[in-house]
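Dear all,

This email documents one entry for the complex benchmark we are building for the journal club exercise. For each entry we list the sequence lines for every component of the assembly. Then comes the predicted three-dimensional structure of the complex as a C-alpha cell string, followed by one or two observations. Please use this as the template for your own entries, and keep the labels exactly as they appear.
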Amino acid sequence: MAGLINHLNAIRSFFNTGGTRPSDFRKQQLLRLKESILKYEEALSNALFSDLHKSKEEVWITETGMVLSEINACIKSLDEWMAPQPVPTNFVNIPGKSYLLPEPLGVVLIIAPWNYPFQLLFMPLIGAIAAGNCVVLKPSELTPATEKIMGQIIAETFAPNYILYAPGEGAVLIPELMDAFRYDHVFYTGSTAVGRIIYQKAAAQLTPATLELGGKSPCIITRNASLKVAAKRIVNIKFSNAGQMCITPDYLLVHHSVKEALIRQLKATILKFYGEHPITSYDYGRIVNKKHFNRLRNLMEGQTILHGGEHNEEQLFIAPTLLDAPSMEAPVMKEEIFGPLLPVIGYGSDEEALARIRQNENPLALYVFTSDKKEADHWLQQVPFGGGCVNTAAMHYLNKNLPFGGRGNSGIGRYHGRFSFETFSHIKGILKAQTWPDIPLAYPTLKGKLKTLKKVI
Ligand code: NAD
C-alpha cells in the first residue's frame, strides 16, 4: 500500500514538472505507443484468442486496428485541438479578445472491462496522453492473457511515473487506488452496478468521472425494413464476440406483420455465417468464464428457443440463440443480456413498442431498421439513448467524428477522437483585455449611470 502511494505521488510530481504539456512530447508518446502495439500485434492477437476465442481478423477490426487508427488521427489533429480557440467577445469587453484554452487535467485513472480488454483500455489512454495527462491504468482481471501483454506494452513504452499499469482484482485494488489518492479525473468502462461504486468514490473526493456503462439496447424492425439486410447486420453484430458487446442489440422489437419473415432470415443468416455447428466456427467466440456462462444459461431457462440454445460448459460455448417473445418480467428482459441470446418480440403499435423500451430507460444505443426516413426520425426523437444507427447496428462506434457515450443509466460523458481530447482536458475561458480605452462607466460610483448601463449591458 505504501509502495502504491509512493508510485502515485511520483506520478503527481512528474505531472507538476509540466513535462507532459508540450505537443511534441505528447506526439512522441503516441508514436512510441503505436510502435509497441505493432511489435506486440501478434502476441495481442494470440492473447485475445486465448481469452475470448477472437480471430485475428476480429482482433484487428475491434481491438488493435481501432486503437492504431485512433492514434494516427490524434497525432494528425493534435496541434489543431491544442490551439487556443478564439470566440466572439461581448460588447462591454471590446476591444478585448476571448478564447478557449485547453489544458491537461492532471493524473487520471482509467478502468476497463474484459469484453474488449485492449481497445477499451487503450482508446481512453490515447485521449488522456493527447490531452497531456499522466495516467494510471486498471485493466480487467478476467482476461489474464491480454492483461499480461498489455502490461508488457506499457512497461516497455512508458516510465511508471508517467503511465502506471496497475493490474489486480477490481473489488480489492480499486478501493486502494481511489481512497489513497485524489485523481483529477476517473474514466470507467464497465457494468452499471460497479459504475455506481466508482462514481461514489470519485464524488467523495470531488473528482469528475466519465462513466461508460451498459444497459439493454433495443433494435426496432418496422414493417418498412429491408429484412434481408436487417437480418445480416443484426446477426453480424449481435453474435460478434458471442454477444459480449456493450452496444450489441440486446433484443429485437419487430412489427407483427414482418416477424415471421424476419425470423426466417435470421435463422438462415446464422446458418450461413456460423454453419450447422457454430462450436467449430472460426468466427464464433466464447463466453469469458463459468460465472457468465451459468448466468446466460439461467437466462435461457424456461424460454421458447426459436434457434440455437446448444451449449458446452467445458468450452464455454453458447450457440447463437433466438428466443421467442420472453415476458417483460423474465430476467432475460430485466437485465442486460451481454451474451449470444437474442429475444425477438413482436409489436403492433409504436406506443406498445415504446412502452417496452421505457421499461429499461436511457439505453446505451438504439437501432432502427426502416426504409422510411420519417419513421426513422420519429424513433430517434422518441427515445432518450446514448447513440445509435439507422439500418445498421453498432457501426456508429467506429466513426471518430461521433461522440460515444451513454445517458444516465448507460453512462455519463463521451469520448473518441476530439471528444476524448476534450474529456481529458479542462477548457479555460480566457479574456485578454486592453489597457486602453479605460472607460470610467464600470467604476464606482455607479450612481446615476443606470440609464447608460441599461443600454450597454
Ligand atoms: P465490471 O463492472 O465487472 O468490471 C469493470 C472494471 O471494474 C474491471 O476493471 C473490474 O476489475 C472492476 N471492478 C469489478 N468489480 C469491482 C468492484 N466491486 N469495485 C471496484 N471495481 C470493480 O464490468 P465487466 O463485467 O468487466 O464489463 C461488462 C459491462 O461493461 C457490461 O455491462 C457492458 O455493457 C459494460 N460495457 C460498457 C461499455 C461502454 O463503452 N459503455 C463497453 C464495454 C462494456
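Observations: The two ends are 56 Å apart (CA to CA). The first strand starts at residue 85 and ends at 87.
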